[in-house]
Write a structure and sequence with these properties.
Keywords: ATP-binding, Chaperone, Cytoplasm, Nucleotide-binding, Stress response. By secondary structure, the chain is α+β, with helices and mostly antiparallel strands. The protein contains 18 helices and 20 strands. Strands 1-6-5-4-7-3-2-8-9 form a nine-stranded mixed β-sheet. The chain binds adenosine-5'-diphosphate (ADP) and magnesium ion.
Length: 571
Amino acid sequence: VHSTQTHHFQAEVAQLLHLVTHSLYSNPEIFLRELISNASDACDKLRFEALNQSELYESDPDLAIRITLDKSKKTLTITDNGIGMSEQEAIDHLGTIAKSGTKDFMSRLSGDQKTDAQLIGQFGVGFYSGFIVADKITVESRRAGVPAADGVRWVSNGTGDFTVERIDRPARGTSVILHLREDAEQYLNAWQVKQVVNKYSDHISLPIQMLKEVWQDAKEENQPGQMVTTDEWETINSASALWTRPKKDVSDEQYTEFYKHISHDFHAPLAWTHNRVEGATEYTQLLFIPAKAPQDLYYRDSQSGLKLYVKRVFIMDSAEQLLPNYLRFIKGVIDSADLPLNVSRELLQESRDVRAIREGNTRRILSTLEQLASSENTAEQEKFATFYAEFGAVLKEGLGEDTSNRDKIAKLLRFASTNSDSVTRSLTDYKAAMPEGQTAIYYITAENFAAAKNSPQLELFRKKGIEVLLMTDRIDEWALGFLTEFDGTPLQSVTKGAVDLGALQDDEEKKAAEAAAEQLKPLLEQLQETLKDKAKAVRITTRLVDSPACLVQDQNDLSPQLAKMFKQMGQ
Ligand code: ADP
Ligand code: MG
């Protein structure tokens, strides 16, 4: 006889459960999406572990997710024959919140029932979504490869605690048994359940099955016929991996649901690109550009978002070798036809195929962005603007990281300028508007927009009507260091060195400047002497119009912004 132990939920879980069970739900049906998604993840994990350990399949190699309805007990059960959970795993995984998405969700709670309930609907809160429709959940599970006697039963009514006990469970995998609330009994209706599965989970690559129902005519005359449940399983989804389907057979809604499934993001993606790449290296790529930057985008250990499959077998999450670091925000799936099934992260690093895939992915993303940027369609243009506001700064890292695509990246950059307060000026536009005689693209880097815009360094440029790009991202100084020219025109910081406007200055101005230089020579020498420990040189300048003096840097010096950035990075 095994004893039943009682455990308390982690405080955050209890808080979350309280909310789930006490709010009005704008979208109760999402519980199915969440639980099916977990069942699918569990099957992926089994497949992966079984690559080197095929006995984990036991005698049950056909992975599937099954939904059963029991009208008399008022239960809906989702069963998978995936990896399963040990007792300890059930305690850990179903009693604490580990995933960052749910933490993010918690941080957004407003305390207002209505708005919070809407948030639940958008996010889904993983396993705990079950309590939207159930007043008790029983989970029975057995991990792949362990004896039948090592099963576990986890039970909770969604308040402060849960119990676990050891059970006999011959079947590998997990059953989540939802004891439906009175107001959720519509989910005992097979037709209704199928509708929801179709809406949210059609992209799941495993078969999702239900017992087939058939119409049975009445045995006696004048009696009504009825639907009866047979004992034959019927697959209710397409059950093919979404990325293997032809583009034309996948709807925008299906792409969006698939994106949410793999990314744990509750926003719809901005754009996606889906291609079968043939040639020396063969693979399918399905890449999504998110609409919102994750909070950990700038952390050193932020995870890349590509899942790697080899011939439809899930191999690993966050395969960072498949994308350059500056595109780490991209989510998606790569399914390779060439890599070995037992490929490891170390092997990925050296693989020629992986290099080809990474290059192919990079090209695709940059061209997808270019299409959005240059589109005539305002909706697409807005998408690009959203993208740029969220990810523009990360993209700039590419100027340093990805020499071979530097020109393409440079084309995508947008800046504010002395002619534009919004961050919309491209280098291409800037060049096209340059007056005759201007030989460089001028820019200034500063802490913020106001500092850039009001810098005395811009006085002469303003007077001459020469546009200067205003750069205020922390990374600009560093990134622009790699971009010495654009389309044959050099980039020149107006705060560095002597600014030579060349042909843009007329002879009279030059003569006046020379005369002034001659006249002011004694003053200059005196200043140079006084400031000899503080300034490298004191020069007469033509760049000021109203201000008497300004500080500039030597052409090759580290700017104050850059020096600060390095200091913050601990270098
Ligand atoms: P997430 O799926 O984002 O990790 P969930 O709240 O949906 O978060 O699930 C929490 C954890 O519970 C999962 O990560 C997994 O470890 C475990 N789990 C949930 N359902 C299953 C299942 N059907 N089979 C095995 N493990 C599961
Ligand atoms: Mg989940």
